Amino acid sequence: MVSLDQIQNFMRDQMEGDKEKGVNVSGDSLEDVLQQASLELGLPIKRIEYEVLERGSRGMLGVGKKPYLILAYPARERAEEVVASGDVAIDLSLLADQEEIRDRDGEVFVRLTPDGVMLKVTKPLGAGKRAVDRAAMEKLLERVDDGIDKGRVAKVVKLADGEFIKVGEYEYDPSADASLSVELADSEMKAYLMAYPPGEGGADPSFEQIISFLEMNDVREGIDEDAVMRFVDDPIYREAVLVAEGSPPNHGDDAIVRHSFDLDPGQVHLKETDGRVDFKELNLVQNVVQGQVLARKDPAKRGEPGRTVTGKLLAANDGKDTDMPIGKNVRVSDDGMSAIAEINGQVVMNAGKITVEPVHVINGDVNLRTGNILFLGTVLIKGNVDDGFTVKAAGNIEVMGNVGKSNLDAEGDIIVHQGIAGRNEGVVRAGRNIWAKFIENARVESGDLVVVSDGIMNCAVLADRKIICRGKRASIVGGQLKAVEEIDAKTLGSVAGGETVLEVGYDPKRKEKLASLEEKREEFGAELEDVKLNMGTIENLIKSGRTVSDDKKAYYTDLKEKKVGLQAEVAGVDDEIEEIRDHLASLKVTGRISASGTVYPGVRVSIKDAFLDVRNEFRAVTFVSDKGAVKVTKYEESDEDVTIGRK
Predict the structure, then answer these.
(1) Is the pLDDT reported for residue 101 higher than 60?
(2) 160 and 180 share one domain
(3) Is 102 helix (H, G, I), strand (E, B) or coil?
(4) Partners of 558 in beta bridges
């Protein structure tokens, strides 16, 4: 790889050779001699280096005038732009990314200046054609009759470096210079330059003259220097040329509230499960939690004043602020820029205001139109819950109609004004109470009370406190019902004598959990015994001195790891079993089961550890536990307040 030092040495060696290619040029001014050198060397001025051999002087009134004399030669390229490879030098700038080149012919520009006739020729782009001598001469002769150095014109055309170079003389008359005027339009937001061509011997205006003229006429803002430069290169006379534009005021944007929830919740967003669209998951409810940001405000922007071309200030209006549109259960953040939910619930736009509703109302049935319901507040259903649908709520669930083979789950209460017909698959769970007209063939779990007016038939019911059937047909027939404190109904069992199991005096959920843990403990224990047996077989092989294969050794290692894991599982289950047993033993409730009407044979009563299979019909009795046995006493009505909505 070529080093930078090698490149620099190479460039120093070439510097002397470049001087040998130089030319001696003389002229009236340094600018003039550089232009001549450019033509002689066929290089743009920017690629020429020179040494001043004799410094010229203008003299006084022509006396003592002395020409400039320079030695001009090709400029050496910067070392960092050249890579030397043997005798080959590569210009790195040629490797740079370039924009797509558009085809354009070389152009010819002519200007008359106080110093003489100036010619500029540009190189073609892409597949464009080069400018030719004839075109240059034709354009020159349109401006002057004679005094053109045709040889220099040819050199300028060949060089085509895009710089104005003097190619002729003419008798300059300052009084015949081009004249300028400026016109303001659009309330001084635009300035147009009008130029009139020079007379005989007059010069075209220069860039500096035009800029100075505009400023003298109060045009100071928004001057388009590119437009002025285009005019200087190729003057357009007797036509208005836009040379300046003012900047209009930029009025500030108004404040905008950006909502972080869907303003059109009616749009259905179907969820795909196992490659199939689940039409029950419509996601129509937009749940929010307390403290969630519901909207943010982009503040109003300050306006930016504008200016006319004469510099007059144009005032701009600041954007207007807007209030955060909050409704019920929504607050504005301390900085006033956010809307925040104060409660869990459903976010909606109500009369143009962001509102969090604690109650989600279904004006009809829960079916394919609504899909499943998941809500972080209370759900009110004015119709039925059809088979196969799920309603889950962080608050209460109230159903004005019936509940079919469905799944209802609420952290609060569940109120079913008609009945629950579960068809052996429906499940209803409540963190607090459950009220219903009737419950049939369903599984029901309550964190407090289960209250039914017409009866419970063939259900599995668990209540952390009481199960109460109170009404003219308040009967419990079939199934298994468990409550910590009390079961109370008008009728228990039926004439047909089907089995009805009633259990009180303990925590049924904990007891179920205990049964599940004990079953799991047996499974872990059996698996652990199998592991120990297999380990023992391999250990006996080793003790007897027999050869044990690598596979069996690896298997033994796996068994050891499995044994440790199972022992940990067993220890964890044992701890849970002990905790639940301690809890059940500490319960103070004695429990009771009552019937204000008839208790039919086939009813099995369980109070703590005492059992009674009813073989004879009883009327208006209460079953209690007495000295480890179930005792039949006179009916005592439950004193529980079962009013819906009680605290």
Answers:
(1) no
(2) no
(3) coil
(4) none
Last residue of a domain, one of 533, 562, 586: 586
pLDDT digits (tens, 9 = 90+) for 215-262: 999 999 999 999 999 999 999 999 999 999 999 999 999 999 999 888
* Host domain of residue 266: 256-357
**Is the pLDDT score of 94 beyond 70?**
no
Does the structure show a pLDDT above 90 at 377? no
Report which secondary-structure segment, H or E, holds 534.
helix 508-543
Q: Has residue 461 got a pLDDT over 70?
A: yes
- Looking at the structure of the chain, the number of domains it has is 5
Within 10 Å of residue 517's Cβ, how many Cβ atoms? 20
In this prediction the pTM is 0.52
More confident residue, 85 or 570: 570
Find all residues with CB under 8 Å of 405, minimum gap 6, and list them.
Answer: 387, 388, 421, 422, 423, 425, 426
One DSSP character per residue, 291-328 reads T-EEEEEEPPPPPB-EE-TT--EE--PPPPP----B-T
Q: Helix, strand, or coil here: 185? A: strand
- H runs (alpha helix) in 225-363: 225-233
pLDDT at residue 93 is higher than 50? no
- Mean pLDDT of the 532-559 span: 87
137 CB-near residues (< 8 Å, 6+ apart) = 148, 150, 153
Q: Give CA separation, 539 vs 517, 528, 640, in Å.
A: 32, 16, 65
Q: Tell whether 89 and 117 lie within a shared domain.
A: no
Confirm whether 40 is domain-assigned: yes
DSSP strand pairing (475-483 vs 491-492):
parallel
Give the model's pLDDT for residue 408: 96
Cα separation, 280 vs 56, in Å, equals 97
Does pLDDT of 1 surpass 90?
A: no
CA distance 529 to 21: 103
Helices (H), 48-149: 133-141
Q: How far is CA 157 from the centre of its chain?
A: 59
**DSSP line for 212-276:** HHHHHTT--SSB-HHHHHHHHHS--TTS-EEEEE-B--BPPPPPEEEESS-S-TTS--PEEETTE
Q: Domain boundary residue among 334, 357, 380?
A: 357
Q: How far apart are CA 64 and CA 54, in angstroms?
A: 14
Q: What is the pLDDT of residue 386?
A: 95
**Quick one: pLDDT at residue 60?**
58
3-state DSSP assignment of residue 93: helix
**What is the number of residues in the chain?**
647
User: How far apart, in whole angstroms, are the C-alpha atoms of residue 647 and residue 434?
Assistant: 13
